[in-house]
Design goal:
Length: 247
Amino acid sequence: MDEGGGRAFVLAVLLRVALLGLVASCAESARPPPAGGSVAAPGDAVVVSTSVRYLALGDSFTIGTGSPPPRAFPARLTERWTAEGCSIELRNVAVNGYTTDDVIAEELPVLPAFRPTFVTIAIGANDIVQGHPIDSYRVNVRRIMHAALSTGARVVVIPQPDWSLSPSAASFGAHEALAGSIARFNAALAEEARAKGAAWVDLTSLMQKQAASAQLASDGLHPSADAYDAWAAELARVLPRPCALGD
């Protein structure tokens, strides 16, 4: 074989080896990963995160009337959990002045499309203001909790604050009468939450201290931004994070 023919033979052999290597590499990459997830190199940290869809139901105390929207307690709670590694989509559909009737008619229809995995419920003050009987209130909160729980979401219920001490509350009745109604409606809400299997977080003591120290917004009725933030801090303290990051 002459010199030119020898070089051509060597080049042909090298090309064949390279093609065989390429085919083997493609076959290896085409293999499916082991059952249960993707392939990770030794020492790689694999973190599984579940996005949380948080739906906040309620009235002015949930939408944060008297404070900027980012200072409402659902927003502050979301910020705390996000800082701890949770991926959370918050939808706060609460509306100032809403009663339990309004929550049923206007807020519960959001459930099917949003498909929440975590729900907070705080409602009742406007039922008192509008003179709704406590028995009717009980029936409505059962409907609200049943609808929320039926989605498979974790449902957390909190009381209404003691707004009877607020300067603006005088236009709704005498302090003693209002305070009594607030206590009775909160007790009914707690009973219905426990009966339905929802989590009841009793912020009554904290809320009473805030009312006594006049932690109020400029409207003289609703809690201040710091008061809302304290609710969020307590909820974050007593509730497990609603995400799958090692909890």
